[in-house]
Amino acid sequence: MLKAVIIDDEAKARRILESFIADYCPAVSIVGTAPDVVQGVKLIQKENPDIVFLDIEMPGYNGFQLLEFFDEINFEVIFVTAYSEFALKAFQVSAVDYLLKPLQIDQLVNAVEKAEKLRGSSLIKERLETLKANLEEKKIKKIVVPVSEGSLFIDVKDITHLKAEGSYVNIFLKDGNKILVSKNIKDYETQLTVDEGFFRTHRSYLVNINYIAAISPDGSEATLQNKQTISIARERKNDFASFLGTLQ
């Protein structure tokens, strides 16, 4: 049985979440709730939970500040938020789970199942630091990449391009290394957008335009600074040229 606590300044929100967990997450036992960060810290210290359901916007201290009270974070954090679209993208690329208000049962169940799998080997502190950095910059600076050994934390500026390999993606880095990830390239297209300097030139390629050295006369290929070539689909040529034009 997983022990969990709920920290949220809204009594109704605490009751709804506690009820949903009781009905749909039989592996989780709520051992306490708190209405603010100060009482939440005391509750965590007392109960030593496996999961903390944590509201972000609260009077006094916010949810992120609660985490600063702990030298070591030995629990999984599932944020409860009504944040903006960008913030949700920051959660996704940082591999930190969140529940969007109003709560959805399937989202809750998936978050709890993931927390159970990650327990004890989740690099939660590093993931939270990545999330905080992305939110503070209001731009995706780092992403967390799942690999067989666990997770890698990658600076977005070090990615030259991504290439689809069937149901996998190879992430190419400026130092010449590449990382094979069991994800669809579409997942990364939604995370690494034009705001981060990336463009989907082809169904197989997502490229960091900062590494483009040249484009072929017919516009069908781009050559990167590392001499690798990237295909540009015929139907994407005009959009790509327009995008590059806006940067000049």
Task: Fill in the keyword field for this structure.
single chain, 248 residues, alpha/beta, Rossmann fold, OB fold (Dihydrolipoamide Acetyltransferase, E2P), 2 domains, 5-stranded parallel β-sheet, 5-stranded antiparallel β-sheet, 8 helices
Summary of the model, kept short:
This protein is α/β, with parallel strands linked by helices. The chain contains 8 helices and 15 strands.
Characterize the structure shown.
The chain has 248 residues and is of the alpha/beta class. The chain has two domains: 2-137, Response regulator (Rossmann fold, 3-Layer(aba) Sandwich), CATH 3.40.50.2300; 156-246, LytTr DNA-binding domain (OB fold (Dihydrolipoamide Acetyltransferase, E2P), Beta Barrel). It contains eight helices and 15 strands. It has helices at 11-24, 37-47, 63-67, 85-93, 105-118, 124-137, 185-191, 237-246; strands at 2-7, 28-34, 51-55, 76-81, 97-100, 142-147, 150-155, 159-165, 168-173, 178-181, 198-202, 205-208, 212-215, 221-224, 229-231. The strands form four sheets. The chain has a five-stranded parallel β-sheet, sandwiched between helices. It has a five-stranded antiparallel β-sheet with strand order 10-9-8-12-11, covered by helices on one side. Strands 13-14-15 form a three-stranded antiparallel β-sheet, with no helix packed on it. The mean pLDDT is 89.
